């Protein structure tokens, strides 16, 4: 009998265990010598049997050999070595084997697929293999989750500056500081906190001869990963990276429902203040003369980046966006800075920031609420894990399991929503963010006309999270001479209609609370919209929901009135005349 042999393990780690490739190959050759099989080819490799057949390189090599050489049988050490895929994968594979009249030899036992009894046995064994695979996966996920809740490392290499004790040793999973590497990490954070950019940090490390994590020279991406890693504060963070919709990129969200964050899980290399200072650096520009709003400016949910055309400087949408504007850089920068300066130099705004900075007691209460809600969510997750175990052990029936799981998941979702809201409020009370805004405001109060473009850019990037603009087309023809010829220069086809600023912190408590309403605005968000009127006034009123509303209409003369009847304005809305 002509045989094609397949030797497979799921991971390289299994190569040293009893089911290693060498052991499978040795047992096969003993069977082949004893029963007189002729070996057509042997294939071996590391791949998961739960993958789709099209994604398994070794299996595809076996199938290609079967189609070319037409052997009598395919040998595997266990049926699970062939596939643990879903019903469709197994059915497609067995159908091809049956059409080619191939037998399956499982550790010396021949399965003839032309017999209905043999096909029945192969199908039953396939169900058992898949059930075993799913239970193994559930146990591994449950074990990793429990280790993560204990602050243990669940996988992957230890961050630079730490080491993870080898398997079997006490303390496995708790990171241990490596003194020489930790000194390099502290140097990186100290330089970053002082405002040094990544390029200069890399140059300093390479000049000093410090060893990089993988040997060789340091690079900017390595330095950036170290600065952003929360493990250096002694914090263990799992499930904090979530995918950005519509792209292959990820962003870190410590407050998402699946995040498991444990503070003081292992010795810290830097304190929280130094970590926050290093990560609070303004983003460094990539050009010698960067635009003021690069990375901050959005139009209808589309990010705008800088570009040039015919000697003019513009903000534009990504290529391929139909109908998107090309906004003149000078016009947009002036509109945004004017709106921000009028807002930030108001005495009420500055006083609100000062009040936020003094809310230590409120922050402590919110921290207690966050800790309580996090404990309740963790308790419900443990309950869900117990339900899975009880269902797997047959202690509860399917209907009871579904009912209890539905109730627990609904309660967990509700608590997770409350937890996210409290964590968002906690972010509002960030004293470091408030202090950063206050410093920028004081700079403005000192005289905004003396600021250069670079200083304006730095202030905006330290205070504003996002700038949304609304633009409209201008029905303007090209400038022409008396003969109808187009004159040199450019004609702007778009103009800025309104500017919307989302700040790093909320300027006052009223705005923060009212933003949670149904008006569509977020915490700390302020809006500037054009208002076609010639008179100037500042009005503090109460809208229909009972929230305090401050409306600024830019002019030289200012009058303060009290009016409770203006219900057309949204809470926290800043309105200025164009």
Q: What fraction of the residues are assigned to beta strands by DSSP? A: 15-25%
| Estimated radius of gyration | 32 Å
**Numbering strands along the chain, what is their spatial order in the largest sheet?**
2-1-3-4-5
CATH topology of the domain at 2-146: Rossmann fold
Distance between the ends? 89 Å
Largest sheet descriptor: 5 strands, mixed
Shape: extended
The structure class reads alpha/beta
The count of helical stretches stands at 16
Low-confidence stretches: 507-578
CATH architecture of the domain at 2-146: 3-Layer(aba) Sandwich
CATH class of the domain at 2-146: Alpha Beta
Give the full name of the CATH homologous superfamily of the domain at 2-146: Resolvase, N-terminal catalytic domain
What number is the mean pLDDT? 75
Q: Kindly state the number of beta strands.
A: 22
Helical proportion, percent range: 40-55%
């Amino acid at each position: 009998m002509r045989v094609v042999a397949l030797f497979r393990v799921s991971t390289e780690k299994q190569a040293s265990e009893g089911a290693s490739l060498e052991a499978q190959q040795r047992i096969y050759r003993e069977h082949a010598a004893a029963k007189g099989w002729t070996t057509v080819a042997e294939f071996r490799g590391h791949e998961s049997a739960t993958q789709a057949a099209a994604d398994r390189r070794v299996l595809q090599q076996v199938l290609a050999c079967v189609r070319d050489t037409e052997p009598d049988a395919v040998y595997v050490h266990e049926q699970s070595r062939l596939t643990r895929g879903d019903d469709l994968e197994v059915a497609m594979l067995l159908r091809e084997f049956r059409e080619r009249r191939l037998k399956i030899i499982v550790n010396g036992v021949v399965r003839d697929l032309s017999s209905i009894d043999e096909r029945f046995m192969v199908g039953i064994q396939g169900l058992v293999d898949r059930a075993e695979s799913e239970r193994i996966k559930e146990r591994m996920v449950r074990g990793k989750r429990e280790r993560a809740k204990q602050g243990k490392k669940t996988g992957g290499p230890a961050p630079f500056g730490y080491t993870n004790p080898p398997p079997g040793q006490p303390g496995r999973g708790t990171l241990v500081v490596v003194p020489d590497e930790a000194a390099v990490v502290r140097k990186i954070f100290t330089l970053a906190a002082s405002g040094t950019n990544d390029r200069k940090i890399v140059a300093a490390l390479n000049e000093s001869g410090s060893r990089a994590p993988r040997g060789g020279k340091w690079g900017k991406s390595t330095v950036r990963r170290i600065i952003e890693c929360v493990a250096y504060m002694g914090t263990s963070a799992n499930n904090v990276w979530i995918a950005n919709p519509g792209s292959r990129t990820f962003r870190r969200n410590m407050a998402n429902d699946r995040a498991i964050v444990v503070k003081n899980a292992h010795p810290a290399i830097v304190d929280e203040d130094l970590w926050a200072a290093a990560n609070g650096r303004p983003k460094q520009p990539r050009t010698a003369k960067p635009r003021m709003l690069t990375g901050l400016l959005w139009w209808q949910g589309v990010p705008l980046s800088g570009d040039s055309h015919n000697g003019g400087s513009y903000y534009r949408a990504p290529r391929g966006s139909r109908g998107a504007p090309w906004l003149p850089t000078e016009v947009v920068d002036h509109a945004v800075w004017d709106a921000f300066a009028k807002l930030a130099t108001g005495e009420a705004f500055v006083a609100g920031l000062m009040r936020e900075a003094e809310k230590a007691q409120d922050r402590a209460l919110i921290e207690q609420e966050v800790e309580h809600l996090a404990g309740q969510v963790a308790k419900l997750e443990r309950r869900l894990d117990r339900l899975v175990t009880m269902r797997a052990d047959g202690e509860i029936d399917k209907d009871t399991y579904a009912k209890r799981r539905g109730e627990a998941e609904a309660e967990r979702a509700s608590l997770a929503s409350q937890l996210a809201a409290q964590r968002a409020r906690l972010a509002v009370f960030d004293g470091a963010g408030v202090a950063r805004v206050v410093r920028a405001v004081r700079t403005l109060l000192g005289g905004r006309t003396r600021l250069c473009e670079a200083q304006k850019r730095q202030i905006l990037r330290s205070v504003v999270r996002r700038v949304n603009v609304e633009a409209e087309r201008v029905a303007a023809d090209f400038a022409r001479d008396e003969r109808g010829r187009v004159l040199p220069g450019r004609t702007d086809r778009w103009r800025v209609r309104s500017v919307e600023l989302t700040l790093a912190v909320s300027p006052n408590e009223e705005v923060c609370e009212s933003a949670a309403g149904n008006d569509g605005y977020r915490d700390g968000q302020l809006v500037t919209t054009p208002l076609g009127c010639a008179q100037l006034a500042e009005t503090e009123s109460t809208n229909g929901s009972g929230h305090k509303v401050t409306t600024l209409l830019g002019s030289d003369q200012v009058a303060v009135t009290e009016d409770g009847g203006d219900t057309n304005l949204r809470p926290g809305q800043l309105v200025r005349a164009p």
